[in-house]
From TrEMBL, chain A:
<comment type="similarity">
    <text>Belongs to the ABC transporter superfamily.</text>
</comment>
<dbReference type="GO" id="GO:0016887">
    <property type="term" value="F:ATP hydrolysis activity"/>
</dbReference>
<dbReference type="Pfam" id="PF08352">
    <property type="entry name" value="oligo_HPY"/>
</dbReference>
<dbReference type="InterPro" id="IPR027417">
    <property type="entry name" value="P-loop_NTPase"/>
</dbReference>
<feature type="domain" description="ABC transporter">
    <location>
        <begin position="21"/>
        <end position="271"/>
    </location>
</feature>
TrEMBL record, chain B:
<feature type="domain" description="ABC transmembrane type-1">
    <location>
        <begin position="96"/>
        <end position="307"/>
    </location>
</feature>
<keyword id="KW-0472">Membrane</keyword>
<dbReference type="InterPro" id="IPR045621">
    <property type="entry name" value="BPD_transp_1_N"/>
</dbReference>
<feature type="transmembrane region" description="Helical">
    <location>
        <begin position="9"/>
        <end position="27"/>
    </location>
</feature>
<keyword id="KW-0813">Transport</keyword>
TrEMBL record, chain D:
<keyword id="KW-1003">Cell membrane</keyword>
<dbReference type="InterPro" id="IPR035906">
    <property type="entry name" value="MetI-like_sf"/>
</dbReference>
<feature type="transmembrane region" description="Helical">
    <location>
        <begin position="32"/>
        <end position="54"/>
    </location>
</feature>
<feature type="transmembrane region" description="Helical">
    <location>
        <begin position="214"/>
        <end position="236"/>
    </location>
</feature>
<protein>
    <submittedName>
        <fullName>ABC transporter permease</fullName>
    </submittedName>
</protein>
Automatic annotation (TrEMBL), chain E:
<dbReference type="InterPro" id="IPR003593">
    <property type="entry name" value="AAA+_ATPase"/>
</dbReference>
<dbReference type="InterPro" id="IPR017871">
    <property type="entry name" value="ABC_transporter-like_CS"/>
</dbReference>
<dbReference type="GO" id="GO:0015833">
    <property type="term" value="P:peptide transport"/>
</dbReference>
<dbReference type="InterPro" id="IPR050388">
    <property type="entry name" value="ABC_Ni/Peptide_Import"/>
</dbReference>
<keyword id="KW-1003">Cell membrane</keyword>
């Protein structure tokens, strides 16, 4: 079976596979403190009532502008933070309220790849230690064996064996990102949340990492939550895409549907704003007015109505909910 | 900002109360009292001492003593110095102008010197001049203030005879006359330089490094791209940024200088708060000691507040409310 | 009476090389090596430094000669029984504010000091006046023993006849004209005491910079003759700067600490003058414990009860060497607890000299049973137990104290007594010594005495300040007798005999090891003249002068 | 073909330098810091070997003994730095004094660093309530007038505990506030780095996150701060001793050796007594500062990237 | 240098064989090596390339804003309006900077001085070059802010940079850059730090201003999409050298240099589904170990030949609308030396 066949096969079977992760009404508010006594004087509603599910083996992409709550969502889902409200079901088990050693145990199954390849590796650790640490956190292992295993893993992500003895500062961004991926893979997790894994990388390196992630998915039957602000990257990677705006999921659709027929005005603007690297295909662009409002006091009603070119009366009063307007295509907009 | 200041001032109260309790307990825990040093058959009798102990309330239960002290304290009655027999308030008031003068002069010297040297070094890093200034500053930083004071007296007062070695003013100068103020200046200069030397050195280096760091900032490149001359960039763009941390030090200096004056004033026999403090320790003058300690604590807290307020004033990015 | 071999050359010595003709005018700079506390009233001051300042602008009604015998100054007196005294004041004596001095100012002083609100330490000097106690307790409106005859004449009756009633009596007037309206409780803090004090001396205070300097100027209406100087400026300078200040002609005269002596001596422009002081140092033994309630010695401590041990320890000390090393010749070895300048001091020929003699010391220790039984190089006590001389000394910032104490301990070690030095912070030290703290076994001390030669307060068994807890009824009786007017009358010779007798006893008993008495040292710039010192202090500043 | 050889050379497997090794290299290359280190090592060695050196260097090696016959001797061939007012050899005392000054400085520094790091790391890492409580307490310690506390505590504990340790404990207990704040802010900053999040996500316990990930990255700051504090502690010790509130007089320390400058005869007349300690204190502080600067340079995380 | 293209007007800026080096451990290493190009009036020239390939250094060289004492122009000429400016003193450059040539930078967050008001910072550039009163300058800056589409301009001038969002700050930077109607604007990655929707706004704005003010722009970016959107001509840089130069349409329709080709294939496209993206293995060599002979891309190039390591290709016209520096094209061989085919020995 060629890779291509394999992928086709995977996509065909996706619909039939069960949900690996299910998010229900997830909210994450950061308290804003002020005054001498550090009272909470407000909330940053970084993630505000988001629900979706990811099937085993699927890649769900999350896009949105900076500050819209993508990372927060990712981190909350992995329980690196306590959600304010909502439920997170992993393989049907509720992990929302886990804590302490139970949570630690559960973490085996979901890992993260981080955005900043420079800040996400401990500069005082040898690469070998960085990658073997997760394993040693859960199992007692023979040192020699483990080293061999790590070296194999290093090779798998495209790094030389010698990297084992080096320190992160000796690697380029792309290589560091590979180390980060190897660390995430070390435990053979079921879910990987990749939080803008390529946004700090050059185009040429970006493609290497994207390719690697795709290969690994097939090889290890991984499930990805892939976060990025670059729609084309997300589209390249994902089976389905969620578009976030100001803490809200405004549209969720399959890769193809979203590009062919974006329903939400924000998604439309987002797609049209992407510079087209082909002068022959220059298109009409929807240029939005103004900036993203502060999540600390988001506009009432639809969060997008302040910038929306087709805003209506109702948009400023009522917050639209995510509804399935086509099969597999959900959108939160009063137009539908 | 006013609201902020008031809130902060109110916030100091618990801290001050806590400190007052500790100060009081410590004073009470100290062996001996102000009368144990007074044993001298020329002047005193054991009966007198016993009587004075009773009269001064040293025999009351501790909570009562504390309560009496603290209630008096908040009403501005700091008690009576057991040594000088006058209200501590008056005693402190008498010394404060000297210390203030010393402190302000030291600050002035510190800041003026630091600015001159720091800006020079910052503009021309790694040159001969910069290295010379850095060398000088390292030595200044390394000499503890008491060593510096001893050296300064030895060299400038005795060997070179440039400065007086003691006192705050020449008694012969007529108060209010020019000569009087010159004399005060002359007396305060050496201790002020010693007192300010360490800060001068560290501020100079700080300013230098900050200027160098700021001169690498993007906004400097922007200013250059606008065609702004280098000189103006240094004197306006960079300096304005480098001043911010330096100005906020002012708040901390405020208390630190008075604390630092303890040694300097003592060595230079400069009659101020610091000297008073040390003497009140040696002579077990608890009312004075406690009042001064509270004063220093308050100044420290106040200095912190001042630093924060100054920060808000000089740095537009900080908003206090 | 000062029968020291070299005493005469020093007592009554005159300062300054320009002892020629007194000159009019000029300013003298007077140095103080510690800041005064600012209580510039004889009734209120607490430390000697303040008194040094007071002496420059005020004087006592009675003065003392070089034998510490009272002499008339403003007041002259008559008495028949040492109980009732009749005093007559000079007329025309002016306070600095222009008011005339009368006996009422003295009465005012008595009443102030005897007032219940009085917070100074001088009540003992008034207590003996008849009716003072009643006045103090509020039972009487006035002191019954005081009878004002006229503005210039006053009779004072004491509660009983004592030989030292006069020397003990408070002899400074207080200016009623300025302090009369001030409540006694507020007096010590009043500006009349602190910033604008007045007196009757040859100089008046112009200005005071607290803790730093005082400016005096000539008082034109001074009662007792001409005043030479125009001004005296008193400056406070730090100890460490004294030598430099003298060298630079920044100060004209100052009291020196012995340690500065050798530094100042070579200076061309400065002359050193010494005169006998009233302070002596000793090493005390704790022989018992004092009970404050009953005012008696309640318990005897065994460790140092052996007189032979104490004497042996005395012989072990090379006091001359010690004094030379730490006082640079500005102190003399003594064998008695009475300053040599006092008229009642016993001549050395009558006392055991305790010349340094380690061999004798060792022999005496052997004889007393202190032998080294376990060959550790140190002696054990007669019971064969470890014997350690625990020697306590007060500690201040001055490092010399530690060396001094260490050296004394070394002397003991040299005769085979294991010694330990403990330095105790000074405030704590006197508390511990006074309270007979168990950790104090032998201790270093110093006493200064006043003009009154009576040592009772420091030596009798019922006195708190008898720190060694020396308990010898025979000796106490001698002290009582010497004050008993029935026994001695007004005969000074008779008194002296009793005191000498007493000194012989304590010289032999050695409840403390007498070490040395200090000389007072003054440094004078050579341009200063007319200054004289004796054991009673300096002559009147009126006679001082400077040449340019 | 120069380029191809370099390529092959680069590919040669070698165990590479850890950030610490890089820092050490940089430090060793820093001349001033190296000279300073040598000086400090020398001073430390001399202090440590004082009991052995003293009999060689001085005819009066016992510093506890007063030598009444050898007081105030000017420097000569026998007493290289002269003797002091108690007839004790100044050079010998200088060595012994170093023991005390360095011991006090070092122990107090250790205490300050340990306490400060503990409080700062806990407050910074856990935040919230723990942070608030710890930081209020730190404020309290910081706001306390240091000198009073030291003097008073030192006086109170006098005689109860060995006074040297009293001093160390008192200084240490009162000086950690600054370190705690620094460590806290550093931890807060470092905590923002994703590798801490990564450590959590790979299942490290909070304890492990602090000790294995956070502290190693904060430690360079702590080390640099530690050197500077070491200098400060030596100054504090000598200043207190100078004022008579520190080490008891019988034990020589640089500070109380210097305190003899307070005496009227010494400052002017016997400079050999006070100048050596003054100079050695200054040189020591200077060296420590240079070492601190060197370490700061060498450990600068920017140079790792 | 071969002039190519159809536009016959004289260039506004002509860079010839520019070499800029950095002092590292006492030695100079060239970060820009022999770069030559023209910018014609009213032209938008895009510069693309991977991070570290020398784009910023090149633009800073033109402005003479290289870090003092570290960076230095070591050779070549920079002609602006016929004047050779590369040797100008700082003082003389100050008359040009901000007036004739201005520049905006990547980081709108840090490029503004945090302690001065927006108004002050815009006025500064005006007052640097024109004799105006403060008041006039203030009016002008308000007008400029309005021009770049900032609402509440009158109020914004009194505010500080931290009170503005990233997009607004970049607009302020643009306002500052066009305050004196410069003839050339150098924009060093002006939109990289911004969100896509904001980026679109800013690009729109720049394009509009360019047309209104008749200025030329050198637009530096690593985003080929941005180049395609607004540039007329493109320079592709690799490791300090220009490897390809072409009009935008030509570059995208038929890239000549393998590097450009790979770069374009590496970007995921919205409208195409490729399972695997093209990649360029290896890294841009650092300035310290830059190969001195041969093609600098050779060790990463899938089409590399043996000669690529020994023969340094020259930027030359490979067809009439295209310049490239690659030995695949005979024109790139030095001295017009024809390539001697040595079989298909690829590395
Ligand atoms: N620890 C925090 N405390 C308070 N607010 C926070 C915190 N972390 C993030 N936020 C705020 O929450 C909002 C969402 O942040 P988040 O990092 O999830 O956005 P993002 O979509 O990942 O943005 P980016 O693309 O820049 O990474 C932002 O407004 C941010 O300022
Ligand atoms: N101050 C400097 N000191 C030393 N080398 C430098 C300095 N600035 C830049 N360089 C080097 O010059 C080369 C080119 O850097 P430049 O900043 O021009 O790259 P760039 O193409 O603008 O990259 P980016 O897309 O990251 O901005 C790089 O290899 C860099 O390491
Ligand atoms: Mg994010
Ligand atoms: Mg760049």
């Amino acid at each position: 079976m060629t890779t291509r066949d394999f992928i086709q096969d995977r996509i065909d079977h996706l619909d039939k596979r069960e949900n690996l992760l299910e998010i229900r009404n997830l909210k994450k508010y950061y308290p804003v403190t002020g005054g001498f006594f550090k009272r909470t004087i407000g909330n940053v509603k970084a993630v505000d009532d988001v629900s979706f599910a990811i099937r085993r083996g699927e890649t769900l992409g999350l896009v949105g502008e900076s500050g819209c709550g993508k990372s927060t969502a990712g981190r909350t889902i992995l329980r690196l933070m306590k959600p304010t409200e909502g439920e997170i079901l992993f393989e049907g088990k509720d992990i929302t309220r886990l804590s302490g050693s139970k949570l630690q145990k559960a973490r085996r199954d979901f890992q993260m790849v981080f955005q900043d390849p420079y800040a996400s590796l401990n500069p005082t650790q040898m690469v070998g230690d960085i990658i073997s640490e997760p394993i040693l956190n859960y199992e007692k292992r023979n040192k020699k064996e483990l080293e061999q295993e790590i070296k194999t893993l290093l090779k798998r992500v495209g790094l030389p064996e010698e990297a084992y003895y080096k320190y992160a500062h000796e690697f380029s961004g792309g290589q560091r990102q590979r180390i980060g991926i190897a660390r995430a893979l070390a435990l053979h997790p079921k879910l990987i949340v990749a939080d803008e894994p390529v946004s700090a990388l050059d185009v040429s390196v970006q493609s290497q990492v994207l390719n690697l992630l795709k290969e690994l998915q097939i090889e290890f039957d991984l499930t990805y939550l892939f976060i990025a602000h670059d729609l084309s990257v997300v589209k390249h990677m994902s089976d389905r895409i969620g578009v976030m705006y100001l803490g809200n999921l405004v549209e969720l659709a399959s890769n193809k549907d979203l590009y062919k027929e974006p329903l939400h005005p924000y998604t439309q603007a987002l797609i049209s704003a992407i510079p087209e690297p082909n002068p022959a295909k220059r298109k009409e662009r929807i240029v939005l007015k103004g900036d993203v409002p502060s999540p600390q006091n988001p506009p009432a009603g639809c969060p997008f109505h302040t910038r929306c070119p087709v805003a209506m009366e109702v948009c400023s009063q009522q917050k639209p909910v995510l509804v399935e307007v086509r099969p597999g295509h959900q959108v939160a907009c009063h137009l539908y | 900002m006013l609201k902020y200041s008031i809130r902060r001032l109110l916030g100091m109260i618990p801290m001050l109360i806590l400190i007052s309790i500790v100060v009081f307990s410590l004073a009470k825990l100290m062996p001996g009292d102000s009368l144990s040093g007074e044993i001298d058959p020329l002047n005193t009798s054991p009966e007198y001492i016993a009587e004075m102990r009773e009269k001064l309330g040293y025999n009351d239960p501790l909570p009562v003593q504390y309560f009496n002290w603290i209630t008096g304290f908040v009403q501005g009655d700091f008690g009576k110095s057991t040594r000088f027999k006058i209200p501590v308030f008056d005693l402190i008031l008498e010394k404060v102008p000297n210390t203030l003068f010393l402190g302000v002069t030291a600050l002035l010297i510190t800041y003026v010197m630091a600015f001159i040297m720091g800006m020079y070094s910052g503009r021309r890093p790694y040159t001969l001049g910069d290295n010379a200034i850095a060398g000088f500053n390292y030595v200044m930083l390394a000499i503890p203030s008491f060593v510096a004071a001893v050296f300064a007296i030895y060299i400038f007062a005795f060997q070179l005879n440039w400065f007086p070695f003691a006192g705050s003013v020449d008694i012969l100068a007529q108060e209010g006359s020019l000569e009087y103020y010159l004399s005060r200046m002359h007396h305060v200069l050496l201790p002020a330089i010693v007192l300010g030397a360490m800060s001068t050195a560290s501020y100079t280096q700080f300013l230098r490094n900050d200027i160098i760091e700021n001169s690498r900032k993007d906004f400097v490149r922007t200013a250059r791209a606008k065609g702004t001359p280098m000189k103006k960039i240094y004197n306006v763009h960079i300096l304005r940024n480098s001043i911010i941390p330096l100005v906020t030090f002012l708040g901390f200096d405020f208390a630190a200088l008075i604390g630092g004056a303890i040694i300097t004033e003592t060595i230079f026999t400069y009659p101020g708060i610091g000297q008073l403090f040390l003497e009140s320790v040696t002579s077990r003058d608890y009312p004075t000691l406690m009042a001064l300690t509270m004063l220093l604590s308050f100044l420290t807290l106040f200095g912190n507040l001042l630093a924060d307020i100054l920060y808000g004033v000089v740095d537009p990015r900080i908003r206090l409310d | 009476a000062c029968g020291d071999d070299d005493g005469s050359s020093e007592s009554g010595s005159e300062g300054g090389s320009s002892d020629g003709e007194p000159q009019e005018g000029g300013t003298l700079v007077y140095g103080l090596d510690a800041p005064p506390e600012g209580l510039f009233s004889s009734a209120f001051y607490g430390i000697a430094t303040d008194f040094e300042v007071i002496e420059l602008f005020d004087e006592a009604l009675i003065s003392y000669n070089e034998n510490l015998e009272p002499e008339p100054n403003v007041a002259s007196w008559e008495t028949e029984d040492n109980k009732v005294f009749n005093f007559t004041f000079e007329e025309g004596v002016k306070w600095h504010n222009g008011e005339e001095l009368t006996v009422n100012d003295w009465v005012f002083a008595f009443e102030t000091i005897a007032d219940p609100d009085y917070d100074g330490p001088r009540y003992t000097n008034v207590q003996t006046i008849e009716g003072a106690e009643a006045y103090r307790s509020g039972d009487a409106d006035s002191i019954s023993g005081i009878e004002v005859v006229s503005d210039y004449e006053i009779n004072i009756t004491f509660d009983e006849a004592r030989v030292n009633n006069l020397t003990n009596l408070w002899a400074y007037p207080l200016p009623e004209s300025v302090l009369g309206d001030v409540p006694v409780a507020e007096m010590s803090a009043s500006e009349w005491v602190r910033s604008t004090p007045i007196g009757i001396g040859p100089f008046k205070v112009d200005k005071i910079v607290p803790g730093e300097s005082v400016e005096f100027s000539k008082f034109d209406e001074y009662w007792n003759g001409d005043v030479n100087l125009d001004k005296i400026v008193l400056r406070v300078i730090d100890n460490s700067s004294v030598v430099g200040a003298l060298q630079n002609n920044d100060i004209d005269m100052i009291s020196l600490q012995p340690v500065s002596g050798p530094e100042v001596e070579p200076l061309e422009n400065v002359e050193i003058v010494t005169y006998p002081g009233l302070t002596y140092y000793y090493v005390g033994f704790k022989l018992g414990k004092f009970d404050n309630e009953s005012q008696t010695i309640s318990e005897e401590l065994p460790k140092y009860q052996s007189k032979e041990l104490r004497q042996a320890m005395m012989y072990a000390l090379n006091r001359q060497e010690w004094v030379d090393a730490f006082f640079f010749g500005y102190a003399d070895v003594v064998n008695k607890p009475v300053p040599s300048s006092h008229w009642n001091s016993a001549d050395d020929s009558e006392l055991i000299q305790y010349e340094y003699d380690p061999e004798k010391s060792k022999q005496m220790l052997e004889d007393a049973g202190y032998v080294d039984t376990n060959d550790d190089g140190f002696r054990e006590d007669p019971n064969g137990d470890e014997f350690v001389v625990k020697f306590s000394h007060y500690a201040t910032g001055n490092p010399t104290f530690e060396s001094r104490a260490q050296q004394i301990a070394q002397y003991f070690e040299e005769v085979g007594l294991r010694s330990e030095v403990e330095m105790v912070e000074v405030n704590l030290y006197y508390d511990m010594v006074e309270k007979d703290d168990a950790s104090i076994e032998t201790f270093f001390g110093g006493w200064g005495t006043g003009t009154d030669p009576d040592p009772s307060g420091l030596w009798k068994a019922d006195q708190l300040w008898n720190y060694p807890r020396y308990n010898n009824p025979e000796a106490d009786q001698l002290l009582d007798d010497a004050l008993d007017i029935e026994i001695v009358g007004t005969d000074q010779e008779k008194r002296k005999e009793l005191y000498v007798e007493w000194q012989k006893i304590v010289n032999e008993d050695l409840p403390m090891l007498y070490i040395a008495e200090l000389k007072e040292i003054k440094a004078l710039n050579t341009r200063v003249g007319g200054v004289e010192y004796d054991v009673s202090g300096q002559n009147s500043p009126a006679e001082w002068f400077v040449t340019e | 073909m120069a380029s191809s050889t370099t390529i092959t050379q680069q590919k040669k497997p070698e165990r590479s330098l850890s950030p610490w090794q890089i820092a050490r290299r940089k430090f060793v290359r820093n001349k001033l810091a190296m000279i300073s280190s040598c000086f400090i090592v020398l001073v430390t060695l001399m202090s440590l070997s004082a009991p052995f050196l003293a009999p060689v260097l001085s005819p009066l090696p016992d510093i506890s003994k007063v030598n009444i016959g050898a007081m105030n001797i000017e420097p000569n061939s026998e007493h290289l730095l002269g003797t002091d007012k108690s007839g004790r050899d100044v050079l010998t005392r200088l060595f012994y004094g170093g023991r005390i000054s360095l011991l006090v400085g070092f122990s107090a520094t250790l205490m300050v660093i340990v306490l400060g790091t503990l409080v700062g790391a806990l407050a910074g890492f856990f935040g919230g309530m723990i942070d608030s409580i710890l930081m209020r307490f730190t404020d309290f310690v910081l706001n306390f007038p240091f000198l009073v506390f030291v003097i008073v505590l030192n006086t109170i504990l006098y005689g109860i505990v060995d006074s040297l340790w009293v001093l160390i404990i008192v200084i240490g207990a009162l000086s950690w506030g600054g370190v705690a704040r620094l460590v806290r802010s550093k931890v807060l900053a470092e905590k923002e780095n994703e590798y801490i999040l990564a450590a959590l996500s790979i299942g490290c316990s909070p304890f492990k996150v602090i000790t294995k990930h956070l502290l190693p990255n904060v430690i360079s700051t702590i080390i640099v701060q530690g050197t500077l504090i070491f200098a400060t502690m030596i100054v504090i010790e000598s200043a207190l001793s100078y004022l008579g509130f520190g080490v008891p007089q019988a034990t020589p320390s640089w500070g109380n050796m210097l305190s003899s400058a307070n005496e009227p005869d010494v400052l002017q007349g016997k400079p050999w007594i006070w100048m050596p300690p003054a100079i050695i204190i200054t040189l020591t502080i200077l060296s420590i500062n240079f070492i601190g600067e060197g370490l700061k340079d060498a450990l600068n995380p920017k140079s790792l990237r | 240098m071969t002039a190519y293209g159809i536009n016959e007007s004289t260039p506004l800026l002509r860079v010839k064989n520019l070499q800029t080096g950095f002092k590292i451990d006492g030695d100079y290493y060239n970060a820009v090596e022999g770069v030559s190009f023209d910018v014609l009036p009213k032209q938008i020239v895009g510069v693309v390339g991977e991070s570290g390939c020398g784009k910023s250094v090149m633009s800073l060289s033109i402005m003479q804003l290289l870090p003092n004492g570290v960076g230095k122009i070591r050779g070549g000429e920079i002609e602006f309006e016929g004047q050779e400016i590369s040797k100008f003193s700082d003082k003389k450059m100050n008359d040009i900077r901000g007036k004739d040539i201005s520049m905006i930078f990547q980081e709108p967050m840090t490029s503004l001085n945090p302690v001065f008001t927006i108004g002050y910072q815009i006025e500064e550039v005006i007052l640097n070059h024109e004799k105006l009163t403060k008041k006039e300058a203030r009016l002008r800056s308000v007008a400029l802010l309005k021009q770049v589409g900032i609402p509440r301009a009158e109020q914004i001038v009194t505010e500080y940079p931290h009170q503005l969002s990233g997009g607004m700050r970049q607009r302020v930077m643009i306002a500052m850059a066009i305050a004196c109607q410069p003839k050339l604007l150098i924009a060093d990655e002006p939109t990289t730090a911004l969100d896509v929707t904001v980026q679109a706004q800013i690009l729109e704005l720049m394009k509009g201003i360019q047309e209104a003010n008749d200025m030329s722009i050198i637009l530096i970016t690593h985003d080929l999409g941005v180049v395609a959107e607004i540039c007329d001509e493109v320079l592709v840089m690799y490791a300090g050298k220009i490897v390809e130069r072409a009009f935008v349409d030509d570059l995208f329709s038929s890239p000549k240099h393998p590097y450009t080709e790979l770069l374009m294939k590496a970007i995921p496209k919205m409208d195409e589904d490729v399972e695997e993206l093209a990649t360029i293995e290896g890294l841009v060599p650092s300035v310290i170990n830059m190969p001195q002979v041969g093609c600098r891309f050779a060790n990463r190039c899938p089409k590399a030949m043996a000669e690529c390591l020994t023969v340094t290709p020259q930027l030359a016209k490979v067809d009439n609308r295209h310049e490239a520096a690659c030995l695949l094209y005979e024109e790139s061989w030095p001295n017009g030396e024809k390539r001697e085919r040595q079989g298909a020995a690829t590395l």
